[in-house]
Write a structure and sequence with these properties.
Elements lengths: L37 H29 L8 E3 L2 E2 L5 H14 L1 H4 L2 E5 L2 E5 L7 E2 L1 H10 L8 E2 L4 E2 L2 H12 L10 E5 L2 E5 L4 E3 L2 H11 L6 E2 L3 E3 L5 H15 L4 E5 L2 E5 L1 H7 E2 L11 E2 L1 H7 L1 H5 L9 E5 L2 E5 L4 E4 L1 H12 L6 E3 L2 E4 L5 H5 L5 E9 L7 H13 L3 E2 L4 E3 H5 L10 E6 L2 E6 L3 H14 L3 E4 L26 E3 L6 E7 L3 E8 L5 E6 L3 E4 L3 E5 L12 E12 L2 E12 L4 E5 L5
Parallel strand pairs: 1-6, 3-11, 13-20, 33-36
Antiparallel strand pairs: 1-2, 3-4, 5-7, 8-9, 10-12, 13-14, 15-16, 17-18, 19-21, 22-30, 23-29, 24-28, 25-26, 27-28, 29-30, 31-34, 32-34, 34-35
């Protein structure tokens, strides 16, 4: 029930304003505090003002102290106090510390999918970027009380790191299946990508930068690897590039004729495979295209002729080459790719370009082929009408004019190729399984021995040779060589700084091989040891017939030969050769075997 007193209005006394609160109620019982006398009021104001000034001055002094130099006070990097230093001073101080900090020079321990590895910071470009670190330190706020540590800015070469990681830990994760478009005949097939899991240069670099100076092994993450070209894009390449490309021939017109590029050649030269990132960028491979249309191109192009050596008057002579004219398929490839994707505009006009010889006169002049550095001759019987002599001359013709560049190795088998009937070689006695019997190319071993000795006395490096099983007195003992296609070869290396040009000559009873170059040695000679372990030949009777070749037999023995290299009147080096000859049986061709 509401009383009369309840209905009375509340009476509030007037309130004074407060500097911090709007509604402060003053109890009515308290009387207002009388203001201080004017003199006390002035003293209070003066004291407060002086205090404020003092505090402001102190704060300003502290700020000035903290901001002295380019780097604020209290800032440290790797425990080095850089506070208050100018930028150049801070840089020098940090560099000096890094030169002695073992954490910076120590090998980095990393772990990748359970595999540990140790990396040298210098090999991966791992460093503290001093300038960037000082920049970071200078931008920080001052620390009025205590220190503020700034993390060093670390840099690493992501590519070098990636290479070093892959070499150190080997295969990790799973390989990404790269996208591609392949051809079976003229039918394109889409190869869709599949994601892999492996190292990523950027993520690896971030991990190493973050964990390098922690002192513990750095865990390198494996990330999902996705091809840059998606499965949908591969399908689109099939429809928009591959299928149109082989739908019809391409035509290349030129001033010397027209080249038709059939669909099969397009399929062989159209590249729709991905790079390391899984990106397919369609292109025409000029080398593959040239190989695919070589016969047709030969009718349009004029091949360049290289400068070459010939022999005139028994001496080498350089004959200048000639420029050629051809279609620059590499430059034409982008236009061919565009035309290949068109249904009707499949003709491209090409200009013939000048093709310089690969070898010029100047190139040959630099080789120093100026003097005969060795020559060697062996004798044969039967005249030039015998099959054996004809084989020797055939090989000599093939080798004459061969040029061996510095550092290159000459292989007789590689140079002549197979020495068969198609190449003009005939049947003559050869040693097969210790028996003399007719065989195609017999006699080439004599040319091989002559060539071997010419290279031997020129001081060139012996790479591969094999002396005969039996000793024949037409050859120098030990330093001779047989050959047999394709199992036995003769090779020498031109280990001189000059080119070596091979010349051959023959008479009705001799074969000569000479080497032209610039002399490295004053001369090369041979010393032989006495023969030892001499064995007599056995006598063997064989059934008479075409495969039986009678011999008088030869003794067997072992002997050494030393090649002596002379320079400035002294033997500069010695090289030892040793060979054991088997005794050649005395073969007698008896009565034919009973049938």
């Amino acid at each position: 029930m509401t009383t009369a007193s309840d209905r009375q209005p509340t009476v509030r006394l007037p309130q004074q304003a407060s500097p911090t609160h709007d509604d402060v109620e003053v109890p009515p019982a308290e009387a207002p505090t009388p203001p201080p006398p004017p003199s006390r009021r002035r003293r209070r104001v003066l004291t407060a003002g002086l205090t404020a000034v003092a505090l402001a001055a102190a704060a300003g002094g502290a700020a000035r102290y903290a901001l002295t130099g380019d780097v604020p006070r209290g800032v440290t990097v790797l425990g080095v106090d850089l506070g208050g230093l100018a930028r150049t001073e801070a840089t020098a101080a940090l560099r000096a510390h890094l030169a002695t900090d073992p954490r910076v020079s120590a090998a980095v321990q990393v772990r990748v999918e359970g595999k540990g590895a140790t990396l040298d910071p210098a090999d991966i470009g791992l460093v503290v970027d001093v300038d960037a670190t000082v920049d970071a330190a200078a931008k920080g706020r001052p620390a009025l009380f205590g220190d503020r540590a700034v993390e060093p800015v670390v840099a690493v070469d992501a590519d070098l790191l990636d290479t070093a990681l892959r070499k150190a830990v080997g295969k990790v994760g799973t390989a990404m299946k790269a996208p591609a478009v392949t051809f079976t005949g003229l039918t394109p097939k889409a190869v869709h990508p599949q994601p892999g899991r492996g190292l990523d240069p950027r993520h690896s670099a971030d991990a190493v930068k973050a964990g390098w100076l922690s002192g513990g092994p750095v865990a390198i993450p494996l990330v999902e690897l996705n091809a840059a070209t998606t499965a949908e894009q591969v399908d689109q390449l099939v429809e928009t590039v591959a299928k149109p490309a082989v739908a019809a021939p391409l035509t290349v017109t030129s001033e010397r004729g027209t080249l038709t590029v059939p669909p099969a050649a397009i399929a062989k030269s159209l590249v729709l495979t991905a790079d390391k990132a899984g990106l397919i960028e369609p292109r025409i491979d000029a080398k593959k295209l040239r190989a695919a249309v070589a016969p047709a191109l030969a009718k349009i192009e004029i091949a360049a002729e290289d400068a070459k050596f010939t022999f005139a008057g028994g001496k080498p002579k350089i004959v200048a080459g000639a420029e050629g004219r051809g279609i620059d398929l590499a430059a034409l490839a982008p236009r061919l790719l565009t035309a290949a994707q068109s249904a009707d505009a499949r003709t491209v006009e090409a200009s013939l370009t000048t093709a310089a010889p690969a070898t010029s006169v100047a190139d040959l002049e630099k080789l120093g082929v100026k003097e005969k550095v060795s020559t060697f001759t062996t004798k044969f019987t039967g005249g030039l009408s015998s099959s054996r002599s004809q084989n020797i001359v055939t090989a000599a013709k093939q080798v004459r004019g061969a040029l061996v560049l510095p550092g290159k190795t000459f292989s007789l088998n590689k140079h002549t190729g197979e020495r068969g009937y198609k190449q003009g070689y005939k049947d003559a006695p050869v040693i097969v399984g210790g028996h003399l019997q007719p065989g195609v190319g017999g006699g080439v071993s004599q040319f091989t021995t002559t060539l071997f000795n010419a290279s031997y006395y020129a001081g060139l490096q012996d790479v591969e040779h094999k002396p005969h099983s039996y000793y024949f007195d037409r050859y120098p003992a030990v330093i001779e060589s047989t050959i047999f296609w394709p199992d036995l070869d003769f090779k020498f290396k031109n280990d001189s700084p000059h080119g070596v040009l091979i010349d051959t000559a023959w008479t009705s009873n001799s074969i000569t091989v000479s080497m032209w170059s610039t002399k490295v040695w004053d001369k090369v000679t041979t010393e032989w040891s006495p023969r030892r372990n001499i064995t007599s030949p056995p006598t063997i009777t064989k059934p008479d017939g075409p495969s039986c070749i009678a011999t008088s037999g030869l003794i067997g023995f072992t002997q050494d030969a030393w090649r002596l290299f002379h320079k400035d009147g002294k033997v500069a080096k010695r090289e030892k050769f040793t060979w054991k000859y088997d005794p050649e049986p005395r073969f007698i061709c008896g009565a034919p075997a009973a049938g």
